[in-house]
């Protein structure tokens, strides 16, 4: 899909797993599309959920993989609990079907939503989150998370660049970003898919002020619905990729040749 859209590069950053990175690289090998290996770590901070991206990570890093396994285990336990809650609400989906939809990867709420959609309990993915499995919903379940600082440390030890994803959901960015910069944060997602030009300008200033690389992405999950930014829809400037690669090379991190 990315190749067909004419994109030059994408970063595959699934939540709490790197299982898709290898297959994505293999699939892209004959297309000219470049794939950045990555991951997205779900973390928690006072009053906010913070997502940390790790670009150019070593996929075989033992410390990162052990942490990802713990996070996936907690994600599966959470999903099971959500399915049980939905059952008590009269929404009966099979746990095995949810697992099948994950195709061996980390089980998440989108897989539950797909199972609900198949059974006709909802009309679109947004309804699943708004009415049932979103934060505060009757079938919502909290799960184990690490701190943003822990995530930054894991990414750095795995030879990657830690970048704060969609920072406007991270509480107070003006306070959060300098603190995380002190912990080793390397970049800030300025060009998020649903951010306005005003948002992007403000985040670009925040990145520059803190000496961070500006990055971007669509946060595309492969789901249907008008509320999702399409693949490539974030219109990330090419200079973001150039600067990200330059920083990686400056730190001696192995990158794919995008020149």
Main sheet: strand order: 1-2-3-4-5-6
What is the count of structural domains? 2
Instruction: Provide the CATH top-level class of the largest domain.
Output: Alpha Beta
Q: CATH homologous superfamily of the largest domain - what is it?
A: Metal-dependent hydrolases
Number of strands: 6
CATH architecture tag of the largest domain: Alpha-Beta Barrel
**What does the radius of gyration come to?**
18 Å
Question: Strand percentage, roughly?
Answer: 15-25%
Estimate the mean pLDDT confidence: 92
List low-pLDDT spans.
none
Order of helices and strands: EHEEHHHHHEHEHEH
What general outline do the C-alpha atoms trace? globular
Helix content: 40-55%
CATH structural fold name of the largest domain: TIM Barrel
Largest sheet: 6 strands, mixed
Question: How many helix segments?
Answer: 9
Termini Cα gap: 22 Å
SSE class: alpha/beta
Can you characterise this structure?
- The structure is a single chain.
- The chain has two domains: 9-68 and 145-250, Alpha-Beta Barrel (TIM Barrel), CATH 3.20.20; 72-133, DNA polymerase, domain 1 (Orthogonal Bundle).
- With 259 residues, the protein is α/β, with parallel strands linked by helices.
- The model has no long low-confidence stretch (mean pLDDT 92).
- It is built from nine helices and six strands; from the N terminus they run E-H-E-E-H-H-H-H-H-E-H-E-H-E-H.
- Helices cover 42% and strands 15% of the residues.
